[in-house]
Amino acid sequence: MRELKILAVVAALTLITYWGVEPFAHSQMHPHVAPADYKFKDVEGLNGMAGNAENGATLVQSNCTACHSIEKVGFPQLMDDASAAAAYGVVPPDLSTAGKLYNADYLAAFIKNPAKASKVEHKFVDGRVHPMPGYDWMQPQEIADMVAYLQSIAPKEMTNKEVFTDACQRCHGIKYGDMMKGTMAAKTPTANIKAYMGKIPPDLSQYIRSRGAEYLHTFVNDPQKHLEGTAMPRVGLTEEAETQVIAYMEEVGDSKKAEREALGPKFLIYLVIFAIFAFLWKASKWREVH
């Protein structure tokens, strides 16, 4: 009985200490971050304007294909990755899947002013300009037409790996995705991406475990929320595309998660049984003393 009283006192003091300290510690180590905004309410997007995909095809082909490939409709990449990175700082994305990956309002805002939409205006000062020129000289209807065209040629479904490849792999590698062949390395050569970003973007193989899904959702949606002044652009992924990116990171970096979580309840049952036997053994050995 005396031991139970001691246990109760220790437990009470521990809980009181935890209740008093943990909220403060959490607020310091994990400051509050606003939830992800998948509607991108801060951008000047389409404002409900419907686009004409047929006219958009003409506009995209005449304004975008000098730098961007659109493999889906027969516009190949004009330069290899190394040459493209040397010219632009980073490999320009193929636009075949842009209409699937990116929020339509964000995409319209990005076409108008890439640096502003992606929240990296602080990078382009003192004469430095974003490698993609802004098309804010276009009429809003023309930009809506371009977005409509990109949506019309985009695939209806994509695998998690395909989404990651098109959304992230120009800058980030994920080497654990293909250890043998090395096909999941970043597309932009290291020297070029370092000069463009200011540092080498990290390999993402273990980021799902070092950061966690909740952090990644808010970070990918808007990197400035976590790292104000970072060179990583806001990329404008839809909620579905972002979820697929993180799902692929989990497939690669935490492939045993389901097995680990399934083992948890079994281990707790084992601990309970072990505690019961330990208590019975102790009681039998100390019965005469007590």
Please describe what this structure looks like.
With 290 residues, the chain is mainly α. It has two domains: 35-253, no CATH class; 263-290. It has helices at residues 2-29, 53-63, 81-88, 98-101, 104-112, 114-117, 140-153, 160-168, 190-197, 207-210, 213-221, 239-253, 257-286. The radius of gyration is 26 Å and the shape is elongated. The termini are close together. 28% of the residues are buried. The model has no long low-confidence stretch (mean pLDDT 92).
Shape: elongated
Helix and strand sequence: HHHHHHHHHHHHH
The domain count comes to 2
Helix-and-strand structural type: mainly alpha
Runs in which pLDDT lies below 50 for 5 or more consecutive residues are none
Query: What share of the residues lie within helices?
Result: 40-55%
N- and C-termini, Cα separation: 10 Å
- The total of helices stands at 13
Counting DSSP E segments of at least 2 residues, the number of strands comes to 0
**Estimated radius of gyration:** 26 Å
- Strand fraction equals under 5%
What kind of assembly state do the chains in view correspond to? single chain
Largest sheet: none
Mean pLDDT: 92
Secondary structure blueprint with pairings:
Blueprint: H1 2-29, H2 53-63, H3 81-88, H4 98-101, H5 104-112, H6 114-117, H7 140-153, H8 160-168, H9 190-197, H10 207-210, H11 213-221, H12 239-253, H13 257-286
